[in-house]
Design goal:
single chain, mainly alpha, 73% helix, 0% strand, globular, acyltransferase, Acyltransferase, transmembrane helix
């Protein structure tokens, strides 16, 4: 049966328009936040305390999570439909070839090389790393979110916590979809409600245990901030709706009024910059609607399909992992000159310089490190994905 005219499902190879551009937008939100953090760390004037600057960093990562949940779920459901079963081992190998090379390169640089680079140590930004054996072990085991809670952040590496969350999702999700059978949507919603219930239970227990919560409860409460599997699962919901052609629901979610209201809510909440209960779930739900429309609406109200956005989106993983180093180099080299500028030009010039250098580093990573592994990853694909 052909799809209704208001939406489209991807053909083969699978390609969703606009999502590469959205990846770049997510990376840019994080970079803006972290540039201001770096200025603060370097003892320079910073807007890092401004609520909107704080919020866009968090929600840029949330947007990455929802995107991952959407894309991974759709591809796995299509694989199950075409081949009868998800090949979990091949899925793990594909994810490893995509994520591990750059991740472990950045881990090695941040733990073993950059702390001893005198050029960066001049500002005191890189220091000797406390609990280095424990840090190294947890990062090697793909548990950077655990390391961040136990030991605190490491210069040039603290952004890697989200890789841990992604990897933990990848470890579980193909098994969930494989065992869901014909009940995918109820299972996905049930997993989300289970995660939400566990989170709220920990929050209530932590608040009730004040002022001296047990160490395990204190760790669990702080770890929840870095364990946003609920955001990834929310991204899976529109993928299931699209895959199963849930036309009645899709019609409502893809109506022009829904699209404009979703955009207005995202922009308004980010500009407000205020945290509120269930804020990650609220943003993740709005992002899920946005992603569905950008990816599959016949006439989305905005387009991110420009060639340059597509290209920068292709580099988004490198941008995310390497922008901390770029910001530190910019502030080390141009800091005194930037400090002499007025507030708005200083912010814009610092951001542009960091972005340009981040793109250069990401290109070097993509063509020099990642692309050979991506070619091997393509050989393992059962469902071809383009873009």
């Amino acid at each position: 049966m052909s799809a209704p005219s208001f939406y489209r499902r991807p053909g083969s190879p699978v390609y969703f328009p606009n999502l590469n551009g959205l990846r770049f937008v997510a990376a840019l939100l994080v970079i803006v936040n972290h540039v201001e953090q770096q200025r603060l760390f370097h003892g320079r004037p910073s807007w890092s305390a401004v609520p909107v600057v704080q919020r866009i960093g968090d929600e840029g990562v949330t947007l990455f999570f929802v995107l991952s949940g959407f894309l991974i779920t759709y591809l796995l459901l299509l694989e199950q439909e075409q081949f009868g079963q998800i090949a979990v081992g091949r899925f793990y190998r594909r994810r490893a070839l995509r994520i591990w090379p750059l991740y472990y390169a950045v881990v090695g640089l941040a733990l073993l090389v950059l702390p001893h680079w005198e050029y960066l140590r001049t500002d005191g930004f890189s220091a000797d790393i406390a609990q280095l054996p424990g840090q190294a072990l947890l990062h090697a085991l793909l548990l950077p979110n655990v390391a961040l809670v136990l030991f605190g952040g490491i210069p040039f590496l603290s952004q890697a916590w989200s890789i841990g969350t992604e990897e933990q999702f990848y470890l579980l999700w193909p098994w969930v979809l494989r065992r869901a059978g014909g009940h995918v949507l109820p299972v996905v919603l049930g997993v989300f409600l289970l995660l939400l219930g566990l989170q709220r239970g920990i929050v209530v227990a932590f608040q009730a245990a004040q002022p001296t919560p047990a160490p395990w409860l204190n760790f669990t409460f702080n770890f929840l901030y870095y364990f946003r599997l609920d955001c990834l699962v929310l991204g899976a919901v529109p993928a299931v709706l699209l895959f199963q052609r849930r036309t009645v629901v899709l019609r409502g979610l893809m109506a022009p009024a829904t699209q404009w209201l979703t955009l207005a809510a995202i922009i308004g909440l980010l500009a407000w910059g205020q945290r509120f209960p269930l804020h990650e779930e609220v943003y993740a739900s709005l992002f899920a609607v946005l992603i569905l429309n950008l990816a599959a609406a016949e006439k989305p109200v905005i387009s991110l399909e420009a060639g340059w956005l597509n290209y920068l989106g292709k580099l988004s993983y490198g941008l995310y992992m390497l922008h901390y180093l770029a910001a530190a180099l910019v502030l080390r080299q141009l800091g005194p000159w930037l400090d002499a500028q007025a507030a708005a030009p200083r912010w814009l010039l610092t951001l542009l310089a960091t972005l340009v250098l981040s793109v250069g580093l990401a290109m070097a990573s993509y063509y020099g490190l990642e692309r050979p592994f991506l070619r091997r990853k393509a050989q393992l694909e059962r469902v071809r994905a383009a873009g």
